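so im writing up the methods section and need the Tyrosine recombinase XerD record in one place, dumping it here so i stop losing it
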Amino acid sequence: MYIDSLPCGTDRERERYWRARWLFTLLYLGGLRISEVSGNTMGRFFCRRDADGHGRWWLDVPGKGDRERLVPASAEMMVELGRYRRERGLPVLPAPHEDTPLVLPLGKSMKPLTRAALHTIVKGVFAGAAQKLRLRGDDHTARAAQLERASAHWLRHSAGSHMADGDVDLRLIRDNLGHASLTTTSLYLHPDDDQRHRETEEKHRIDW
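--- predicted struct ---
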């Protein structure tokens, strides 16, 4: 993965690496929109026990059209959150109602990044990956051109496609991504949240 090839020789390079890794984790594992990243905080992560007493982490996301949804925060996502927070000198787990933005600027600022700034980070990663792919030869030109056109929405779309390919129930995918419905006949389906969390964690991964 291109992000893992980013330089980490200086403090700033290391910070840039962990930020990119965390942002792509949110966009892909969480299926979040850019606006849902820029407008959210780490204090919206919370742990809730399921019927068997197991603690499951969730991210409360204010979504499109002022609708809120709960996104499963898989064990993999929580590990990445802890790593990113540790790099920023924060406790591994966020406190309830903590106002730290989900993704931070480089340096000491604790202000949220704008949607435009987040888009720039994402496009920069895709551009770097495309450049690296072109070095492999002409056989990779088409794939490199596709990467250069990729965006945060492409990651969200890929998340939905890969969950479907992994046999995650389409109703669960709908709820994870915050879509109003899959078809007009599924408007009133409400799958069990614990099942949604289990299936998402088992079948939708990055494996950094």
